[in-house]
Amino acid sequence: MQQTIKQEATLEQAIDLGLRADEFEMIKEILGRTPNFTETAVYSVMWSEHCAYKNSILYLKKLPKDGPHMLVKAGEENAGMVDIGDGLGCVFKIESHNHPSALEPYQGAATGVGGINRDIFTMGARPIAQLNSLRFGNIESARTKWLVRGVVKGIGDYGNAFGIPIVGGEVFFDDSFNTNPLVNAFSAGIIDTKKIISATAKGPGNPVFIVGSSTGKDGIAGAAFASKDITEDSANDLPSVQVGDPFMEKLLLEATMELAETDAIVGMQDMGAAGITCSTCEMSAAGNVGMEIHLDKVPMRQENMLPYEILLSESQERMLVVVQKGKEDIVKRIFDKWDLNAEEIGVVTDTGRIRYYMNEALVGDVPAVSLVLGGGAPQYEREFKEPAYFQEYKKFSIDSITEPSNLKEIAYQLIQRPNIASKRWVYEQYDSMVGTKNMSTNKPSDAAIVNIKETNKALAMTVDCNSRYVHADPEIGTMIAVSEAARNIVCSGGIPSAITNCLNFGNPYNPESYWQFVGAIKGMSTACLKFGTPVTGGNVSFYNQTVTNGVEVPVFPTPTIGMIGIVPDKNKVMSLDFKLKGDLIFVVGECTNDISSSEYLVSHHGITASPAPYFDLEKEYDLHQTIAGLIENEFINAAHDVSDGGLFTTLVEMSFPRELGFDIETDSEIRTDAFLFGEGQGRVVISVSEEKEDEFIEFMVSSSVSFTLLGHVTKGKLQIDGEHFGFITEAKNLYDNALSKHLEN
């Protein structure tokens, strides 16, 4: 072969590709020469924040990774895996697709769904459920409405066509997301633990295949694009947005599942960020081997693609497979059956280097380990400092707010707020029932419940984060996010198992944004250790901010928590709906005189500067154990945690499914607005039938958790402190239709 490496790259080219001057010098030292343009492009994507986590990895290493159910830990494979018993594992992960969605919301969101599902089935697991966590700007702006419509349609169209139910999620609106929406996609799958497929290349001489779709110019350098700020010029980066094909992905899933039943696979990895570059380098580094790759053999859908374009393309629905030598025909036969490409493009070597060829000419020669996270990729600890607003927020006092007299009017306004109102407009565009595994559709629970067929178990899963709380106090706010995720799973009858995270922050070179990131990591570690929910992986998304006239405006920090729980007995799944007129209503946990960072304080009083709401981790943990005991002993017939919108929102949400109501008394020692609308943590509303009352009280007295009788369930009338608050049908109509009125206005 002609050993040709031409065209030394210049510093200006390296900087244009997103590398720093000192990083370009590091590459020269690694190679012992100046890299050519193709090699520089390879380093630019592999050393981008999106792939290398170079500004976050030192802190990510501090997150707890060990737990009783762990089978695949963070960083070991494409996704984490926990043991769910009966020889089965749950593979799950959450990732962001924020920057693409900001420019092209439909394809940005759709390909986010496709990418996260490939991470699951590339390991040999069949996806069974999806969730998503979305953030948008001011709902009254035309751009926000355009983004919402595009993102929701992209998620729905791709997920529905792919055939995996979308079983839950969250949507939050705030002005900080006006330019940068957040689109975080979660997927979970089930696998026979003996059949896991590793993302590791082994065996010099084994052939390397690219399978799935053809390669085009869409998504070129998408990883580098995701590692910089959104500016007025970002529309020029539209070629960095990938284009998805869910029907192709469905074929790829079935072909992969069939291939997984053979003994032909050595290793396999999804081609996500950085495409062929990432999969060849990471698989080689994981196995301490090298590869020779012939780029001209890659199936292409556009003519005259240059080597760097082929390497950096993020065309969707593609995977790299290392095959046992001599079993190539098995792979070709399966993928031919599903009408998919399966082309041999290279071979595993013992050199530790990746050598890329184009028409017999050597166009790139790089050591695999020098490119990857934990290998030669740089690792930085950035400067951080506490922002001035943090201490200012702490000065807020509830005493500075005069308690309003029109609480009924405020209550009805609150349940129509975009952050509180039903997200029916969103979820009705998703297929939640395909696959017949979703147990939550007709039995609403705090977490989504997914049936594990042929067992007595189910999976509980949720995504949670209140961005406003995290902005107010990153450490406490992130502890609350983990705690609420665990609380949702416990209230549904599950046992929290492990988390995946999607860490959405501003520019890491901004010391105040980095301070938020560091605080969030600390809070996450503390809460995960307390609940025994190790971190299995996820992703970091920095640069979520807008630069306008030289001023950086970051989004609210949003460390989204995706949590998996195991429901040991699916006959004991707990729903949130009131069951019968006359049932007693209790709040379990401590009610506090607190309205900090509540939707009520922001929307009604217009006050955005306040600390995170009341939170006590020890009391939160005790609450979870108590609720789990109540469900296990079948002392309660409904449970719903108190979160966004406060106690009033919790009560009406429990009333809606059966159109029942409630008659309650507030606590005379707590301000009524705080009692009804405050978002102090560590509370769950439960209902108890009259015949179970004595057993319930006896159990609660033996616990260390406080509880208060609120009142009883009515046939549909809402009454608070003797005042008529209308009927549930009236509230339900407003709650159900508020979001669509905003979006369709």
For the structure shown, list the relevant keywords:
745 residues; alpha+beta; Phosphoribosyl-aminoimidazole Synthetase, Chain A, domain 2; seven-stranded mixed sheet; 25 helices
Structure summarized in a few sentences:
With 745 residues, the chain is of the alpha+beta class. The chain has 25 helices and 27 strands. A hairpin with a 7-residue loop joins β1 (70-72) and β2 (80-85).
The largest sheet is:
7 strands, mixed
What portion of residues belong to β-strands? Answer: 15-25%
Count the beta strands: 27
CATH architecture of the largest domain: Alpha-Beta Complex
Q: How many helix segments?
A: 25
The percentage helix is 25-40%
Would you state the CATH class of the largest domain?
A: Alpha Beta
Q: CATH H level of the largest domain: which superfamily?
A: PurM-like C-terminal domain
CATH fold-level label of the largest domain: Phosphoribosyl-aminoimidazole Synthetase, Chain A, domain 2
Q: How many independent structural domains? A: 2
Q: Which class of secondary structure composition applies to the elements? A: alpha+beta
Contiguous low-pLDDT stretches (5 residues minimum) are 222-228, 232-238
Question: Reading side by side through the largest sheet, how are the strands ordered?
Answer: 8-10-7-11-9-12-13
The multimeric state of the shown protein is single chain
From the spread of the alpha carbons, the general shape counts as globular
- Average pLDDT score: 93
